[in-house]
Each structure stands twice: as structure tokens, then as C-alpha cells.
Amino acid sequence: MEVFFQQLINGISLGSIYALIALGYTMVYGIVQLINFAHGDIYMVGAYLGFFATAILGWSFIPALLLAMIVCAILGVVIEKLAYKPLRNSPRIAALITAIGVSLFLEYGMMLLVKPDVRTFPQVLSEVQYKLFGNLVITNRQIIILVITVVLMLLLQYIVHKTRMGKAMRAVSYDKQAAQLMGINVNNTISFTFAIGSSLAAAAGVLVGIYYNAINPLMGIMPGLKAFVAAVLGGIGIIPGAMAGGFLLGIVEAMVSGYGKSLYRDPAAFIILIIILIVLPAGLFGKNVREKV
Amino acid sequence: MKKHFRLAALLVALVMLAGLVSGCGGGGEEKKAADANEIVIGGNLELSGPVATFGTAMKNGAEMYFEEVNAAGGVLGKKIKFNVMDNKSDATEAANVATRLITQDKVVAVMGAATSGNTMGFMQVATDNKVPIITPSGTALEVTVDPNTKKVRDYVFRTCFIDPFQGIVMANFATNDLKAKTAVLYVDNQSPYAKGLAQFFKDSFIKQGGKIVGEEAFMPEDQDFKATLTKIKGLNPDVIYVPAYYEPVGKIVKQGREIGITVPFLGGDGWDSPKLPEIAGGAALNNTYFSNHYSSQKDDPEIKGFVEKYQAKFGQVPDTFAALGYDTAVLLVDAIKRSEDASPEKIKEALANAKDVQAITGKLSFDENHNPIKGAVILEMKDGKQVYKTYVQP
What we know:
Chain A is mostly helical and 293 residues long.
């Protein structure tokens, strides 16, 4: 039982990273029906910004997190304006190919900029271990990851449901043309969505840097794909679905490596994707809820 | 739903394409083939990528020796030119680099690569062109001996000891010094080096009455190891053997200590990097041990002189890979001297007949399988520093 709870803790910390990235996927899909494959690389850029702020500027954790989130929000908007907006009325496959192009551009551009070597974060948060019920170990970093994830998710829920911009987002995702006729600035709304999604991914990147302490320019590929799986698992376009999908995927991975064989972990994630696509194409949360963002 | 699958296929194709494209790049400026007063030696080393510190240290060590030789008048009346290219810690890229070095730059021998996998990536190119290669630290058995035919590969040599020896040394150390009865193997699933070490550790450990209570594997690009480590913790082993390269090792040791694993982690020479304590943190690395080719702290006049020279030039203590790079350069220069005409064919023969060449990691002679006969050291990590523990003769 103890091992089970330990794996649960491991899975939740991993899952909160997936969930943060999956939120960006799902929101962008909800609003422009684009699977933004560059999203995992925005997460990588966020990690590097966190590294830049802590290791080079010597900032502490929270300012570094905010810097990464703000810069990545701007980056997300710039990418949207330059790469996706001109293609908004083209076939969807064109936008998708562009997304992959942007992804490769970010990966190899970053490699050019910072070298392909691994970077290590300075110790911005000293490690504290807490023992629960005897042998169960939880570290302060795991708690911080979870707390920040939950805070950001609550903030997102507030923005989407309680603010004018959130209302606009929901309206645009529901019907772009009707929203425009009602006087909503669709372009601004889409930019705003990219900004929020990208800043969440950046937060995930900084958290990963702090948690695992090693970053490299290709680190976004696998978590990006996993977050995509998480978004599809929860029902792409549905915010609570992405959160649940992220946590669920993290926990499943932890359990598979804990009770099965460690190498079955990645295949398990993609088998889940295939099963979901076959059995529940709309995802776990995608039954009657038509409200998307 | 078809769209998603098409998407995935497209993505895979593009990623592979990107790999190819990035593989073809590198090295913009054209280099002229050797002129008459130069002997060009190629370097096919990991200057970037996951094992970048290995290749960089080797390049430094080798360059230092070649400069000494050139300052003393060169070999056979000619200067040595060391032409190093980056293989980006990638076997495919290593093959590209080797092709270029051999066919375009007309090198007489190639030094590299640092890892067994990358060396095996280009040894066919070298063999086909009849140019000898010598890997400073490719320890896998099959690097110099074809596992299918059991025949030695004529054009491949190495400066380091081999995996069986390293695995056995660590198994002996675990049984005799640490009094371990049970062990878990946690192995890099993509590295022939790691798998080789694990196999020989396992065989030897069992032979001495130990028990392997678990075998787990990971992918080198993994970030999260906690789930598997939690499982390993539950198996309650006396030691955990992690033969892998420093990047995942750093994360594994760090995360292992975080979930409360206190038993020793053991490893091989792939651990030797200044990045390891950076990633894992000095305190987490306490109570870990690994086998290595040399220790800068060993009381030996050759080593002391080398450490001083290296420190004066590069401002840091030379790690094993710097020493092996230096030694590889020593072996190559010695072979060129005895080859008389510096042709690849003669150098190959001279290398095979190397006898008692004085180098940093020992007096080197090759056995019939092109492996040098030498011992190993075991190092302990204490607060992020390597501490010399013991020396083991073969």
C-alpha cells in the first residue's frame, strides 16, 4: 500500500507537468482547431528562460517563473501572428505542417543558440524531504509543483469563466463568425489564448528545470507528445479534460513503471491514445459538453 | 480519427528528416588535403550532445600531446595536424564525420569516438577505406572483436580496458569491500556499453554468491525515474548498479536520494564528468562508487606531471577522458614513428605491435584482440569530488 501511495505521489508530480502543457494544446485546439505541435517546444523555451533567470541573472524562483511565463506568452503570440494567422483560412493540414515547422525551428534554433549540451539549474530551492506515515517520502519541490499547478489552473478557470476575455474565448470557440458579428475582436481573443497557453507551458518548463535539474533543447519532444495524449484523453478542446488527462497519464505512467516493467511506460501512454481514439473518440469528458475553449 | 494517425506519421517522417538534415550539416569551411609536410590525424569526437564532456576532454588531452610532439620537431620530420570534427554524440553523425575525414581530408588514422556505440557507427567506413581507428574509451567487447565471427577487427583499436573487466571489477568490489549480497541492475536500454557492463557485473556477482533481485531499464532521454526507483527501493537491494553515462546517472542518483534510497549506487567510467555532481548535487552522490581508467590523485610521477601540465593549460584537473585522449595520441605517435612512411596500412601494423608504450593510464601493450593490458581504479564520490579508493590489476 505504501508503495502504491508513493507511486501516486510520483505520478501526480509528473502528471501536473503534463496537465500544464496539455492545457495549452487543448485551448488552442478549442479556439482555432489547430494541434499546435510547437507547444512542447515553448515549454522547452520556458525552461531555458528559467535557467537564464536563475543561473545567469541570479533571480529567485518566483521572479524566474514570472519572467519565463511573460516572455513565452509574447513568444506564443508572435508565433501565432507570424506562422498561423496567415494560414487561418487555408486547409487545416497547412497549419499543421507549419506547426511542425515551427517546432523544429524552435528546437534547432535553440540548439544553435545555447549548444546541445545539458544545462543544470542552480539550487534555487533547497531540498526538504517530508516523511508521511512512516516511509512515504514527499519533497518540497513536489509540493511546490503541485501547488503552482493547482493555482494556475484555478486562475485559468477564473479567467475563462469570470472575465470578459474568457467569455470572448468561449464565444469564439463556439462560433467564430457569430462572435465576430457580436462585436468580439476574434484576432485579439486568439492571441490571448495563445498567450495563456504558452505561459502555462513555460511554467511547466521552469518547474521541470527545478524538479529534474537538467534541461536540453530537445527536452520538449516527449512531454509535448505526452501532453497531446493527455489532451486527447480528456477530450481535446475541453479544459477540465486536459487537467484530468494530464494527471491520469502521469499516474498511469508511474504505476506502469512501478508495477510492470519500466520500459513499458512510453508504449502504455501511446496505447492509451490509440484505445481512446477507437473507443471514446471525443475523450473522457467529451460526451455532451459542447462548451469548448 | 484518421487525421490523427496521418498526423502522427507525418510528424515521425518530419522528425526523421530533420535528423538527416542536421546530420549532413557541420563544418562549413573547406579543408585542404594534407600537404607534404604534415601528417593529418582525424578526430571523430563528441564535442556536443549528451556525452560532450568526454569528447572535449579527449580533444584537449590529445591536442596537448600533439603540440608537445610538434614543438620537439614532429615525427618522421613532419608536423602533426590534428583535425577534429564533432560527431554530436550520435552514431549516424559519427559515420558522416568519418567519411569526410577519410575521403576528403585524407587522414592517416582516426581517433574516436568516445562511446562504443558511436565508434561502432563508423568503424565500417574506416575498415572499408583501410584506415586504422583507435577509440580512447569505447569499452564494449564487440568494438574490436566481431561478435559473429569472433575475429578481431583489423583496423580497430582502443586505449581503454574492456567492459568485462570493468563489470567484474565492480562486482568484486561490491562483494568484497561493500559486503553486498543483493543487487539491482538499472540499465540504459539504448547503450551497448551499459548492457555489456550490466551483463558482466551480473555474471560475476552471481558467481560470487550474490543475488540480482531486480533488473530495470530506462531510456537515456527520460526525465522522470522516480516510479522505477520507488520499485527498486521496495526490492531492498544492498547496492544498485547503474552502468550509464553521466546525464541520466545524475538524475537517477538525485531522484533516488529524494525518495529515500540510501544504499550505494555503483557505476562505470561513463560516470566520469564534471557535469555529474552538477546534475545530481554533491550530497546525493555520497556513497557512490565507479570504476575508472585512472585517478588524478594516484601517487605516480607520470600522472602528476600530466595533471600539472594539463591544469596549467586548461585550468582544470584532467578527467579520465583527457588522460585517455592523451594516451591515444601517445599510441598513435608511437605507431607513426615505427611505421616509417606514415601510411595507414603501416600505422595499423605498428599499432598492433605496440609494446610497453609509456602512457598516463599505464604501460600499454595490445593483446591479440587489440585491447590494451591494464588495470582499473575505483573512485568514490565525496561531496561532489572524486576520491581515489583502490587500484585493481587484471
